[in-house]
Amino acid sequence: MTADPSPPVRLPEPPTRPTLTREYLATAALALIDTHGLRKFSMRKLGAAVGFDPMAVYRHYADQEDLFDGVAEALFAEIDVGTLPWDGPWRRLARDYCLRLRDTLLRHPHAVQVFATRPVRSPASIDTGVKMLTKLRDDGIPPAQALRLFRCLREFTVGHALAIAVTRLGAGRRSRRPGPGSPDYNLLAEAADATTPDDHFEAGLTAILHGFEQPAP
């Protein structure tokens, strides 16, 4: 029987007090997902990894879906929204937020699916949303229209990150795109060879931002 070739899990520093916390468990779960992938994750493995009875996790999270909500919150915290350019133009703020969100998610490709499939309702996320809508309102954009804008930006950014993460995790190797010189080499394949999977992201952001310059119907 061969040894498990998986790399060791780099868990966050444990809490100083002798009890687990929700935040520590969420970041430890994220570390496990980063290392072994989402499919191999379980609550029992998390409990064993942090050195507690596996059932101890259930004293902080009702079930795995509840824990994944915490993982999504940990990913949001990593964006560090407090250092965004809040004093600058709103378009710069929105663009920088989306770039940070994309980069954060792509540092954790196995966990993008977790973030993409649940709303983030942490106090930090809610406060950020209120602060962003307030800034746009002060610049003359009604809150409902501002919310439409940020929904579009979030969906575009998370969807883009998910597509890139899937490619990086192996989907790109299954591509059947014909190569130059092949009888099947067509205009689509030629255009694909002239691009990269992520070179349209900022162009897409610009299109969304300019599209919302027009008043809502």
UniProtKB/TrEMBL annotation:
The entry's DNA-binding region? 42-61
Keyword Repressor in annotation: yes
Q: Where is the HTH tetR-type domain?
A: 19-79
Q: How far does the signal peptide extend, from start to end residue?
A: none
Q: Which UniProt keywords apply?
A: DNA-binding, Repressor, Transcription, Transcription regulation
Positions the record marks as coiled coil are none
Annotated protein name in UniProt: TetR family transcriptional regulator
